[in-house]
Amino acid sequence: MTSAAILGCAGLRLAADEAAFFRELDPYGFILFKRNVDSPEQVRALTAALRECVGRDAPVLVDQEGGRVQRLAEPRWRRYPPAETFARLAAVNPAAAAEALRLSASLMANDLAELGIDVDCVPLADVRQPGAHDVIGDRAFGEDPATVARLARVQADAIAAAGVTGVLKHLPGHGRSMVDSHAELPRVDADRATLEAVDFAPFAALADVVPYGMTGHLLFPALDPERPSTLSPIVIAEVIRGFIGFDGLLMSDDLSMAALGGPIGARASASLKAGCDVVLHCNGRMDEMTAIAAEITELAGVSAMRAARADAERRRNSARRIAPPADAPQWLAELLSGLGTA
Question: Which of 138, 253, 254, 277 is labelled catalytic?
Fold first, then answer.
């Protein structure tokens, strides 16, 4: 039976011990990072090997946002603008911003689809707040909730049309983080009314747009003073599933991030008990994955139903894939030329 995990591997090729481990555990899916990427031929071979070891069309994810978060990078792949670029253009020409984002997202998704990567961890619906840590920064579509929601939807729809399925992140909102959650736990002291009006609003607008969602590791004392959102039954049930209304497959953010304390296996168990459907572990360390494997459950019940719905949408997107036109890069550059970027 499929296990409630999305895992990574250590290098450019699947090692024999990794293949054996994945074959036995049967994780729901896999995620790639820069350490797993060298050439198109190599990535295609790796995605095929990952699926072969579990004997099914498992999702293969990547964080390919554009800007500084781009696992497939130059010189073999095109450099894409960060989300903030499109927010800046939207401030002067909303129609041009939407078209430029559609082109950029289509080109980016086409890169992934050609490699066997069928899930991209975008869009970010985080609303950036002045003075917040740049862990989000230019990765966000700006500071206005309505603009964030509008542009995030354009991006999600564009990658789907190009054959790739999105992940809504970072639920319920990472834009007020004053520290980097990779290094420590952010504390967000805004009151619930403010959070609902600003931070949660884009997520609510996008709740049914993509079948996957990802939590953020943040502490919201107004919601749960004891547990970060990934580990909080209150945040997941009342906010993510309740106020926001997201009913897709919910994955944790990376369990190895320092924002979550305690043993890695306990983090996995607590995430699932809190209401995450699957846990995400990204660094490819076998000792940590083994500890996670001892604590996680099989995908069952409502989580299995959500996974089945997500898989069906992912396969529909792959089947209807339409490659961007040949002149898309030039068209994109022209639309962005007024901002001094391409």
Answer: 253
